[in-house]
Amino acid sequence: MIFRPRIFISSTFSDNKEIREKISVYFRSVGAEPLLYERELTPSVIPMTYRENIKEADFVILIMKNNYGTKTDWDISGTHEEYKIAQENKIPMHVYLLFQNSPDSTIVDNPLVDDLKKDQVSFFYFKDDDELFSRLTETTFTIAKEIMISQIEKSKLPRDSIMKLAGNSDYCKAMEVIQFIEAMKVCKNKNRLSWTGHNLLSKCMDKIISDFEPYPHNFLNWKLDEFMNDILSEAKMFKEKHSSNFVSNRGSVCEYVFSGGSYFISTTTKNAQTVKDEEFNSIIDKFFKKYDEFYWCVQDVRTTTDLIGKY
Question: pLDDT tens digits, residue range 224-283?
C-alpha cells in the first residue's frame, strides 16, 4: 500500500481561502493528502472535529497573517488551538508568518506568535502569497524527510539508527554516480578518446541529467544535494553547447560498459564555430571540479555514518 502523508493546513479561513486551495492542489499533485477543515473535515456530527483530525496528520503547515482569528471555547483562536494540539502530539510542523515592514511589526498583539517565541519555534517570514507558495514548494523534500523521520521515530527506532539509514541511503545512491563517472574516465583513457571529439562525455551527461534533473532534491544530505545540482548545471551547459557545435558520426570506435547498460561511442565532427575550444575546456574543468567536490563529500558521508553510535 502506498503511503500518502496527511498534511494539515492550519490558518484562518477568510484571508487565506485562495492560498489554502492552491497549497491543497499542489500537495495532491505530489502524492500527499492535504487536510482542510472546510472541505475534508466538515460537515461532521463531532463538535470541533478538527481537534481530532489534526492528531491524525503527519505534518502541519501553519500560516499566520494579520487576522489572529475568532476565539473558541479554549479562549484562543482555532489556528492557535491547532498549533497547541500539534505541539502536544509532537507532529512536525512548518510555520509561516506574514512580514510587514519589519519582523517586529508582525509579532505585535498576537498570542500565537508569543507562544511560538516562548516555545522557540522557528518560522519563515513571507511578504505575499506568491512568496509563501514558492517557499512551500521549495521545501517539499524537507517536509517529506521530516515526515519520514517522524514516522520512523514513532516506530521506536533509535535516532542513531535513523541517521545511519539516511547516511547509507545517500552513500549508496551517490556511489552509483561515482562508479558511473569513474568508468567513463577509464573508458576515455583506455581508448584515447577526446571529450569533445567523441560523444562519450555527452552521452554520459545525458544519463546523469535524465536520472537526477527531474527531482528537486536527490539526497537527504544537503551538501550532497547542492553538489549534485552543481554537477547538473555544468552537465546541461556542456550538453547544450556540444550538441549545437558537434554532430556524431556513423559507426562506433568503442563500447562504454557500465553497471546497468552500455553505450557505443563514436567520433564527432564540428559543424559550427560558435563555441571556442577554450570555452569547452573551461566547462569540462568546472564539471570535474564539481564532481571532485561531490566525491569527497561522499567520503565524508561514509565516514560520518560509520562513526554514528560509536562515541
Answer: 999 999 999 999 999 988 888 888 888 888 888 776 678 889 999 888 667 788 888 999
Domain membership of residue 168 (yes or no) is yes
Looking at 154, 172, 196, which one is the last position of a domain? 154
Q: Which residues of the chain have pLDDT under 70?
A: 1-3, 39-50, 101-108, 152-153, 155-158, 259-260, 272-273, 311
Residue 300 lies in domain: 159-307
Q: What is the pLDDT of residue 167?
A: 86
Residue 216 is classified by DSSP as: S
- pLDDT on residue 276: 84
Q: How far is CA 285 from each of CA 85, 189, 221, 226, 240, rounded to the nearest angstrom?
A: 53, 16, 25, 18, 16
Phi, psi of 263 (to 5 degrees): -130, 140
Angle at 281 between CA 278 and CA 285, to 5 degrees: 140
AA letter at 100: Q
Q: Is residue 292, in this structure, part of any structural domain at all?
A: yes
228 with 262, same domain?
A: yes
**Same domain? 142 vs 165:** no
Spatial separation of the C-alpha atoms in residues 304 and 10, rounded to whole Å: 37
Number of domain units in the chain: 2
* Three-state helix/strand/coil letters over 72-104: CCCCCEHHHHHHHHHHHCCCCEEEEEECECEHH
